[in-house]
Amino acid sequence: MTNSNQLAEASDQARNALDLMERHQIPATPKNFAVWHAYLDGDNLNLVNAIDSMLASDAPFSPEQNTEFFNKFCNGNVENELKEMGQRIESAVAQVSAFMGIAVTGASQYGSSLEAFTGKLAEPQTPAGLSNLVTDIISATRTMIEVNNQLSHRLTTSVKEVAQLKKNLETLKRESTVDHLTKLFNRKWFDQVLDQSKLESDSKSTPLSLMMIDIDFFKKFNDTYGHQLGDQVLKLVARTITDCVGETDTAARYGGEEFSVILPDCSLTQAMEKAELIRKTVAGRKVTNRNTGKVLGQVTLSVGVAQYTNGEPAPDLIHRADQSLYFAKNNGRNRVCTETDLG
To answer: What is the pLDDT of residue 80?
Structure first.
């Protein structure tokens, strides 16, 4: 297939993906486009089956569902980029090492030339012979200077490239662990941190608590005022959580309008106090339409808190915190409940 045919085919598929997204009222964000482009490719059968199932049931494609599709089926692209970036860094570092090796070899050869020159100077020389010796050592010196200049330039360029690649790698790593909307950590990072926090709690015999947070009536707010204002609420809650937790705590967007906070070295009582601070702070703020200035109302949270039991699986701790959260929602919302309330 010629390049022009490949370009035409790729353009057609991109347009088809955008047409499908428009038909199902899906915002044309880069991540959503990646999902639907992959769907049309047909290579990811699990993604194809998941979307086909949604289409067959005529279920709406909510922002939460779109995000779930990307995280579950397409987020491997970030991992591939990380792997590729790591390989490029290895290659650049190897190049630096090669340049250093060339420089060492050149210096060794020049040293040998100087040693030979010194030895011959100690011998009787005719004027012509001495002139030839000086000409040879000047030529060797010029060659050495030229080689060193070239190596210096290449080395400087390679060092800069390594530094830039490392910077890009850190950016990619950060992006792979952060939720793009709220800037909190994502579910993948949450799972990793929770496993590590459990190990530390077991080894140090320190308490570990988990907080699960849900925005009350968020779907109703979204349906009434639209997804843009819904996103504004998610950001407001995320900022409040970040402001209220400590530096050693890990706040994450667990999914949709649900958030979680891992609280190392924190008892159930201390975790409840932090949860109350978050709840009260959010409840004390008003959501306004930035375009009109109109106050849209109050946002409230339901929070569930549980404390880790030495050696228990992570899903058990999450389940208890979730149960506490739903207990709070079933008993009036806008409140904090802990596993002790479950009876």
So the answer is: 59
